[in-house]
Every structure is written in C-alpha cells, then in structure tokens.
TrEMBL record:
Protein name: AB hydrolase-1 domain-containing protein
Domain AB hydrolase-1: 50-280
Pfam families attached to this UniProt entry: Abhydrolase_1
Alphabetized InterPro entries for the sequence: AB_hydrolase, AB_hydrolase_1, AB_hydrolase_fold, Epox_hydrolase-like
Gene3D superfamilies for this protein: alpha/beta hydrolase
Top-level division of the source organism's lineage: Bacteria
SUPFAM superfamilies assigned to the protein according to its UniProt record, in alphabetical order: alpha/beta-Hydrolases
UniProt keywords, alphabetically: Signal
One example GO MF annotation: catalytic activity
Length: 295
C-alpha cells in the first residue's frame, strides 16, 4: 500500500467515525481496519470493560444491533466486527476465510484498537471462532460468552447441510440462503407476528459475499472437536441458549456447562437460534447480570 493510499484509508476511517458520532448512537465509532490482508468493518460503542461479540453464519456484526445500547449503557465497550466476506468486510480471493483466519482477524482487531484483554463471545459459528481464539491466546480473555453454539464437530448430516449451503450460495447468490436459515433463526411466532425481524435478518444475510458464504460453510462443516478445549477454559463463562433452537439445541449447551469450570447457563424462552436478536432484552439482562463479576 502506498503512502497516499494509507492516508486515504486513515481519512476514510476518520470521516466514517465522525459521521457515526454525529448521526448515530452516543459514543459509537465505526470504521474499516486493514487486518491480515482483509478489510474488516467494526463498530465500537460505549466505554469501560471491552466486550467483543462475534456473529454467526452468514450474518454480520449487525446481528448485535439490539445489544449495543443496553450493554454500553451498563458500562461496557461493545465491539462487533463483520468477519471477512460478510457485511461490509472484504477479503482477498487468496484467503476468503478459515477458522484460523477468522480468529486471527478478531485478535488483530483487538490489537488495532489497543485492547489487551476483553470479554469475548460468539454466536453459532462465532463459538468455534471463540474456542480457536482461546486456544491461540487465552491471556486475551477476561470472560467468555457462548451464544447458541456448540463445541462438537459436525456429524455427517450436518457436514452435508453446510456444503449444500455453499453450493446454493454459489448457484443462486447469498440472498438465497435466507429462506433456508430464517425458519431456524426465528421462532414461528416471531416470523408470523414480527415480519420486520425476518426482513432485518434477510437483509443481513444478503450482504454476504459468495466467497464468504462458501468459506464459512466449510468452517462449519469441517470445524474441529472443541470438547477437549472446554475443560481448559479458566475464565468465567456465560452460555446463552434459545429454548427453541433447532440448529444447536439446549442439550449441547447443557453439556458445555457441565464441562466448563465456572460456567453459567441461561435458557431464553420463546427464542430460536438467533436468540441474541429475537429476545435481545432477555439476552442483554442475562449478560449484564453475569458480567458484573467480570471486571
């Protein structure tokens, strides 16, 4: 990158941040960071104890739009990112994404923002990324939040499901995945009575790139067995689970709680796989109550 390009990138980041502060939520910063050959979009809101939240497949940091205000007002600096290939983030064709790359990207964002340690949480695919980050850099964790996710590797049926998602995104485009996923992300009641919620998630899904969708699907299909990692976790851990999650049902969360020392499990009624979005108020209350002891 030339000196002029670096100056333009810095100027673009500053303008983006200023615009957000002027027109968005108080204390919110937004920008792009050059990380490991990719351009990673991030949002940071609030001040206090840092809390990095990682989205699932095939979403973006906007999954947590309903959580930022409440958590920031409770005394946390909430950072969300779009994994490479999702939302506003981009990636080189040579490295569209992998479990290791997603983890390194997230750690590099913390470095860029001068955050040595944080509460780190992941939803769905964000869970395996969180485990990989912990294996790589456990000293960066103040606490861990696991949201509608699991530590087990994918079985044969699930492997084929994710490979099918990759094929469909390649053939019909990222937006084609929304109907396949929304039936599991939101409960039937929410889909019927709150069509705006379904539209919001559909719009987020549609923002992904084809390469990002394929890379993420392969991460989910080929994720390692993180069950042995659970007993090594030495930080306070909160497990959030939608009672009606059919992707990774509550039984998986219960097993994680039993294997992680100092873990707390909160089941959220009336929520499916996207519990953090569908029942944001309940999720926020659970996080704030748990995180009081993590400072």
């Amino acid at each position: 990158m030339t000196t002029l390009q670096k100056q333009m990138t810095t100027l673009s980041l500053a303008l983006c941040t200023t615009a957000t502060l002027a027109g968005g939520s108080a204390g919110m910063q937004e920008g792009m960071l050059d990380v490991n050959g990719a351009s990673i979009h991030y949002v940071s809101q609030g001040s206090g104890t840092p809390m990095l939240l990682l989205h699932g497949y095939p979403l973006s940091g906007e999954l947590f739009a309903r959580n930022r205000d409440a958590l920031a007002n409770a005394g946390y600096r909430v950072i969300t990112i779009d994994h490479r290939g999702y939302g506003k983030s981009t990636a080189p064709a040579s490295d569209p994404g992998s479990l290791e790359t997603y983890a390194k990207d997230a750690l590099a964002v913390l470095d860029k923002l001068n955050i040595p340690k944080a509460i780190i949480g992941g939803m769905s695919m964000g869970g395996p990324i969180t485990f990989e980050m912990y294996r790589e850099a456990p000293d960066r964790f103040m606490g861990m939040i696991l949201i509608d996710t699991l530590a087990n590797p994918a079985g044969i049926v699930e492997q084929h499901l994710w490979k099918g998602m990759a094929q469909k995104a390649t053939t019909f485009g990222p937006q084609s995945l929304a109907p396949e996923l929304l039936k599991d992300m939101l409960t039937g009641q929410t889909r019927m009575n709150k069509p705006g919620d379904a539209k919001t998630l559909t719009d987020i899904v549609s923002q992904a790139s084809v390469a990002g969708d394929v890379a993420g699907a392969m991460v989910l299909a080929n994720r390692p067995d993180s069950v042995p990692t659970l007993k090594t976790i030495r930080v306070p851990t909160l497990i959030l689970e939608g009672l009606e999650d059919t992707v990774y049902p509550p039984e998986f969360s219960m097993k994680m709680m039993q294997n992680i020392p100092n873990a707390k499990l909160v089941i959220i009624p009336g929520a499916a796989h996207a519990a953090i979005f569908e029942k944001a108020s309940a999720a926020n209350a659970a996080i704030i109550d748990w995180a009081r002891a993590v400072r």
